[in-house]
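Study this chain:
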Amino acid sequence: MIREICRDEAFLARKAQPATPDDRAVADDLLETLRHHKEGCVGMAANMIGVDKRIIAFDNEGSYMVMFNPEIIKRAGAYETEEGCLSLTGTRRARRWQTIKVRWQNENFQERCKTFTGWTAQIIQHEIDHCEGIII
């Protein structure tokens, strides 16, 4: 189901709760909402659709990927950039990392770990910030 985009900064500023296997339907809605906004959006976190769970979905070099309970465990190559967000008006400065190593759970809640670089790494960092309640 395509969900409405949450713009409530008080809600967005809360740290998200861990996702469980019962939250798979939330991931489906997140993906459907992301696809609906594909012209102006490359990633979303569950709180952007009003759900307080650590789930992100993003464009991973042409195909969509979902992560449950993602966390960055290693980072390298800091840089400054400017980002926009469907949930927030305008753009904001952000410090990002060129290379990140992420640990997460897939849709079967099996643990995964992978290194991401460049644009994909930037998208993931933005969405994980949402999970942490960080409004850039």
